[in-house]
Amino acid sequence: KQEVTQIPAALSVPEGENLVLNCSFTDSAIYNLQWFRQDPGKGLTSLLLIQSSQREQTSGRLNASLDKSSGRSTLYIAASQPGDSATYLCAVVGGSEKLVFGKGMKLTVNP
Amino acid sequence: DAGVIQSPRHEVTEMGQEVTLRCKPISGHDYLFWYRQTMMRGLELLIYFNNNVPIDDSGMPEDRFSAKMPNASFSTLKIQPSEPRDSAVYFCASTTYRDLEGDTQYFGPGTRLTVL
């Protein structure tokens, strides 16, 4: 059974710092890995999707990397801003179409 | 496109009552997913459909939960009878898999259910 872990569960940083969010998964047989953002009381917004054949994806200040063999992904946020404060979730799609989520990491960026 | 639409956004009911949650997926998407999110367990998949057919309902917690998709533009998740432990945020998501490696899922805003 696929398990996705995100550590730590919460992080508080001052504005301007470069951040690395970690995600690990137990079964390396995945089709893709996705990073989502969730704001309080809202749904999930997809940030980046990395196909299994890819090593990384970039969107603006965000960069996500994937190392399937070690079961790890990182989300890099450059020059963090208070607007980046949210919960970030990692999810993988394996042998079926199902997304398996981590429990998320709550990020607070202080001005 | 308006995105995935869910109704109601909030529902407060008493234990034992029937609850029906509704979802309208993005037009053209052939996969629909129902998730439940709680503080303790995070985001869990309950059931998903492909072309209106239930594919995997192994995440449905018990027989009190049922889901239907009568057509490509509408799905319901029903809880009967409801219990306080069903209190959670229920999300609907849709997508279309253009290739084996898939596409992202698009989430609705969720329905916050409180069972008293």
Strand content of chain B: over 45%
Q: What oligomeric state best describes the polypeptide chains here?
A: heterodimer
Main sheet overview of chain A:
6 strands, mixed
How many E-type strands of chain B? 11
The averaged pLDDT of chain B comes out at 92
Shape of chain B: globular
Class by alpha and beta content of chain A = mainly beta
How large is the count of helical segments of chain A? 0
Greatest interface (CB-CB under 8 A), with counts per chain: A-B, 25 and 26 residues
Order of helices and strands of chain B, N to C? EEEEEEEEEEE
Name the poorly predicted regions of chain A. none
Order of secondary-structure elements of chain A: EEEEEEEEEEE
Question: What's the mean pLDDT score of chain A?
Answer: 93
What gyration radius of chain A follows from the Cα positions, in whole Å?
Answer: 13 Å
Keywords for this entry:
heterodimer, A: 111 residues, mainly beta, six-stranded mixed beta sheet, five-stranded antiparallel beta sheet, globular, B: 116 residues, seven-stranded mixed beta sheet, four-stranded antiparallel beta sheet, 11 strands, 53% strand
